[in-house]
Amino acid sequence: MAPLGKGKGMDLIINSMLTIPSKELKWRFSRSSGPGGQGINTTDSRVELIYDIKRSSSIGPIHKQRLLKQLESRCIKGCLVIVASEERSQYQNRQLALTRLAGLLRKGLRKSPQPRKATKPTRAAQIRRIQTKKRRGALKKKRQSNPSSDD
């Protein structure tokens, strides 16, 4: 979980090398559906957090490319949009959105694992596999009520 600030003036710490300044985060608020009783009709508890990856000054060009590639299904015109409306209070939804953003950025900045190198089974493994298949076939053949004339 990322250290989150209280209020609008705090920066979002992603890891030891990356901190997103609060000025790069844009917020939108609207009425939320879901729990809240009568207060749901009057409070803007739904939160949209917008982070423009392309225009960010806190991320280098290589990391921007990696993020845009990793998160392309979640980005709209280079902006990552996170919506939180699960909680009843706007503050809790804001904290939830910041946590999700930090998690997505951490995941997106990770180097992808090296692709698996295709290998062939060893000769001994192939022989073991064939022997196992033959044993299994012989066992099934024994169970038949009318053994075939091949035996």
Give your account of this protein's structure.
This protein is of the alpha+beta class and 151 residues long. It has a domain at 12-109: Double Stranded RNA Binding Domain. Helix content is 34%, strand content 19%. It has three helices and six strands, in the order ββββαββαα. The chain has a four-stranded antiparallel sheet. A two-stranded antiparallel sheet has the order 1-2. The longest helix has 21 residues, at 123-143. The chain is elongated and about 85 Å long.
Task: Considering the chains and any ligands shown, give keywords for the structure.
151 residues, alpha+beta, Double Stranded RNA Binding Domain, four-stranded antiparallel beta sheet, 3 helices, elongated
Apparent shape = elongated
Helix content: 25-40%
Query: What is the topology, as strand order, of the major beta sheet?
Result: 3-4-6-5
Straight-line distance between termini: 67 Å
Question: Taking all residues together, what is the mean pLDDT?
Answer: 84
CATH class of the domain at 12-109: Alpha Beta
Largest sheet: 4 strands, antiparallel
What is the CATH-assigned architecture of the domain at 12-109? 2-Layer Sandwich
The share of residues in extended strands comes to 15-25%
Secondary-structure class: alpha+beta
Low-pLDDT runs of 5+ residues are none
Q: What is the chain-wise order of helices and strands?
A: EEEEHEEHH
The value of Rg in angstroms is 28 Å
Q: Given the structure, what is the number of helices?
A: 3
Number of E-type strands: 6
